[in-house]
Design brief:
Structural class of chain A: mainly alpha
Number of strands of chain B: 0
Order of helices and strands of chain B: HHHHHHHHHHHHHHHHHHHHHH
Largest sheet of chain B: none
Structural class of chain B: mainly alpha
Largest sheet of chain A: none
Helix content of chain A: over 70%
Distance between the termini of chain B: 48 Å
Number of helices of chain B: 22
Shape of chain A: globular
Oligomer: heterodimer
Helix content of chain B: over 70%
């Protein structure tokens, strides 16, 4: 089998996992490429599953298992872990007043599955009972930032002071301020804090670097963005959000081949598959149609499940890969109602322009006036979207 | 919203205590506190600040949003109607906001509005009272007393007059201890207890002050976050003056959590964090607040201290130079309002001539134990031992014994007793 087809076969296998059983004919057949650290993760999972099975009503055991699933979903870019997490949490799904440990993982899961309102409700309930729960404040800050509630997000960031390492507080604050017309200043402060935070954890450093990279991208400083992305990627294992962020940057920099190389083993995650497909399309590669077909199948399946986790990716695919602006616009509007981010703004502007519906871009214009968001990519899109 | 500054005033800037606790020119260049990190007070007293979940007040964001809104509305009405009462309303809100943000411009603008209102209608007792309060804030004590006389002539309430007179008397170093005791007994409340606590601190009685400040918390029944945040800062300062840095940090943190926009809380919290070896946390606090504090020399003094703790000498020097420039500017513009703070700053930096010049002016203006001690230290640093001893004896003659007097007593051990 030509090597470049191996990846495709694996993608197809993954997609058809629940359709038709595959029986390998040779011992050397590759069934699946396992992510780095798989053995350790699998051993840990086995332990957690056993603990949960031994005490199915123990919220701590359930929470530990769910949290591990969610962590693995993020680091392995394998969305099946979200499904496992949903299943493990099923007994507590609609519990009105579950234990704090369950509230925490349920909020995490809600946010990971793009259900911010539910996530916030669980976080509020958690914080009412445990006002010192730093990680809940941090997640709340992130959720509110995505919702465009910047004062609320900053308030949550402030709650972290003295409760977590200072670099995390700084990254939290800068991640909000950078969206409020203070991109350069907030990056400058964060760089300064990063420089003095010699004892900071790699997680905090990675978070700070990703905030700095994002800020640099929006300010049009490609060299700084590249530097921060590289530093962030070097700090920890593969993180699907960071990879998607970096892939977008590379695509903006016309480096599709680099994206193909970066993500060649990460097609299980819909977001990363989209970036791979976008790169393949730019390169007019042989796998373009296969990726597109796979994406369509994934999005159709998500729609059937009512899963809107990858709404932004669907809008982008409809606009860029499938040339369906009329279908993209209502989804972009739905995304905008859920998330006020530079990305959702760009998608709504693009969809409004492609669907020749300039009035649909008005909410973004209003938002830009209020927030003062700086993004070098926006003026062109605003012009395309028309008045 | 009304102004309730309390005896100590709400603008007891960062440097008042911070620099008093320094060790003079031999100390580190950007000195804040070099005493012990803990004392028996850290462990012996178990009282802790009232947390936001134990007593809820309006969130800082909402509170500041409302205050900004009130300023805007009042300003609009002033522009539209030129009505003196709206000017007083605008002045009141501006002055209140200044207490939180530390923005001197708001205080000065407030006084300007009051004076315009009184020029248009001198028969406004509330206007004279407000003017007196603002002038006191700016250390124009003669002007404040003249305003009080006007307020009385125009029928101001006796209680309000007495309250303000007490406040001015205290700020001038007059003995009002009995009056403060009587007021706290007659009208127990957050401010009356806090003011009495400060008087006990001046007498070197930390335990009673500590108890009164703790009691003051319990007497608060409003949802306005500022009075409690202010009280926490006062309690933190009291702890700090007696070396209880860990407890001071807890009170400053409580104040900051209750009202993050309160500049005094943020500055003191940052400084105590730095003293406690958490300079990186302090830097986070200060750098993100810088945009709101560009005219505050105390802020830059704190930043210089923190930067130096972190080993960034260039940044520390830059912040210190900014602080110096701001002190010079403020002394130039507002004179007596800044003499004491600027003198303390220059004394700490070892600029003896400038410190002495300002300390002398300040001690002529008011003869509090703090201003006399400052003068004694400035004279000593400038190489005038006789004048230093004279000032030191005047300090002792006040009969007050705040911790700073004990701290610096060794410097004046050779002075002949008066």
């Amino acid at each position: 089998m030509p090597p470049r087809l191996t990846g495709l076969l694996l993608i197809l296998l993954a997609a058809q996992a629940f359709a038709e059983p595959y029986t390998p004919t040779e011992d050397s057949s590759i069934l699946e490429r396992l992510p780095p650290g798989y053995r350790d993760n699998a051993a840990r999972l086995r332990t957690l599953r056993a603990q949960q099975a031994a005490a199915p009503a123990d919220p701590a055991a359930v929470a530990a298992l769910v949290e591990d699933y969610l962590q693995q979903a993020q680091t392995s870019a394998d969305p099946r872990f979200y499904g496992y997490a949903e299943a493990a949490l099923a007994p507590w799904r609609d519990a009105p007043s579950p234990p704090v440990a369950i509230l925490w993982v349920r909020a995490l899961l809600h946010q990971a599955r793009a259900r911010p309102v539910a996530a916030l409700a669980d976080l509020e309930a958690l914080l009412a009972r445990e006002p010192d729960a730093a990680r809940a404040w941090l997640l709340r800050a992130q959720v509110l930032r995505l919702r465009g509630d910047y004062p609320g997000a900053l308030h949550s960031c402030d709650k972290l002071l003295g409760r977590v390492e200072p670099l995390l507080v700084a990254a939290c604050r800068s991640s909000v301020l950078t969206l409020q017309g203070q991109a350069a200043k907030s990056a400058q402060i964060l760089e300064k804090i990063l420089a003095v935070s010699t004892q900071a954890s790699s997680a905090a450093q990675q978070f700070a670097r990703s905030v700095l990279a994002d800020s640099a991208v929006r300010r049009g400083d490609a060299a700084a963005a590249e530097r921060h992305f590289q530093a962030a990627l070097a700090l920890a294992g593969r993180d699907s959000s960071l990879l998607a962020q970096y892939a977008d940057f590379l695509l903006d920099q016309q480096q599709a081949a680099a994206v193909r190389e970066l993500l060649k083993d990460d097609s299980r995650d819909d977001s990363l598959l989209l970036r791979l497909a976008l790169a393949e399309a730019r390169l007019k590669g042989a796998q373009q149609n296969d990726y597109n077909t796979l994406l369509q199948e994934r999005f159709a399946a998500a729609e059937r499940r009512g899963d809107e986790t990858h709404l932004a990716d669907r809008v982008r695919a409809l606009l860029v890969l499938f040339d369906q602006p009329q279908a993209a616009l209502p989804l972009a509007q739905r995304l905008w109602a859920r998330e006020r981010t530079p990305e959702s703004a760009r998608l709504l502007l693009s969809a409004a322009a492609a669907a020749n519906t300039p009035q649909a871009a008005q909410p973004v214009r209003d938002w830009l006036r209020v927030t003062g968001l700086e993004d070098v990519r926006l003026p062109g899109l605003l012009q395309e979207a028309g008045q | 919203m009304s102004i309730k500054p309390g005896i100590q005033g709400l603008r007891a800037w960062l440097c008042v205590v911070g620099i008093l606790l320094g060790t003079g020119p031999a100390a580190a260049h950007f000195s804040f506190y070099s005493g012990p990190l803990t004392t028996p007070a850290d462990g012996a007293v178990t009282a802790a600040p009232l947390g936001v979940t134990q007593y809820r007040t309006t969130s800082g964001d909402i509170f500041m949003g409302n205050l900004d809104g009130l300023v805007k509305v009042a300003r609009r009405y002033v522009e539209k109607t030129n009505e003196p009462l709206w000017r007083l309303k605008l002045a009141d809100e501006l002055a209140y906001r200044a207490q939180i943000t530390g923005h001197m411009d708001d205080t000065v603008a407030a006084l300007g509005e009051v004076r315009q209102a009184l020029a248009a209608n001198p028969a406004l007792p509330g206007g004279w009272l407000l003017s007196a309060r603002l002038r006191q804030t700016l250390h124009d004590f003669a002007g404040a007393e003249a305003d009080l006389a006007q307020a009385q002539a125009h029928g101001a309430a006796a209680a309000a007059l007495a309250d303000l007179q007490l406040s001015i008397d205290y700020a001038l170093g007059r003995d009002v201890f009995a009056a403060l005791q009587e007021r706290a007994k007659r009208d127990p409340g957050l401010y009356s207890y806090a003011d009495l606590a400060d008087a006990y601190l001046e007498r070197g009685d930390f335990a009673t002050a500590d108890r009164l400040l703790t009691e003051a918390e319990k007497l608060y029944t409003d949802v306005n976050p500022l009075p409690l945040a202010w009280l926490h800062v006062q309690h933190g300062l009291a702890c700090l003056r007696y070396g209880a840095v860990v407890r001071a940090h807890a009170y400053f943190a409580a104040a900051h959590e209750r009202l993050p926009q309160y500049s005094m809380a943020a500055e003191h919290l940052a400084l105590t964090k730095a003293v406690l070896g958490r300079a990186d946390e302090a830097l986070v606090l200060l750098l993100y607040a810088e945009d709101q504090q560009t005219n505050n020399p105390g802020f830059y003094g704190a930043l210089a201290f923190v930067e130096e703790k972190l080993g960034d000498t260039a940044a520390a020097v830059a912040a210190d130079q900014r602080a110096q420039a701001l002190y010079d500017e403020l002394v130039e513009r507002y004179q007596e309002a800044w003499w004491q703070h600027a003198a303390e700053y220059h004394l700490e930096r070892g600029d003896s001539a400038r410190a002495l010049e300002l300390a002398r002016k300040n001690s002529e203006l008011r003869q509090t134990v703090a201003s006399l001690l400052l003068l004694a230290r400035a004279e000593l640093q400038a190489g005038h031992p006789d004048a230093a001893c004279t000032a030191w004896n005047r300090t002792l003659a006040t009969g007050r014994k705040p911790p700073e007097v004990t701290r610096f007593a060794a410097d004046f051990a050779q002075c002949p007793r008066a």
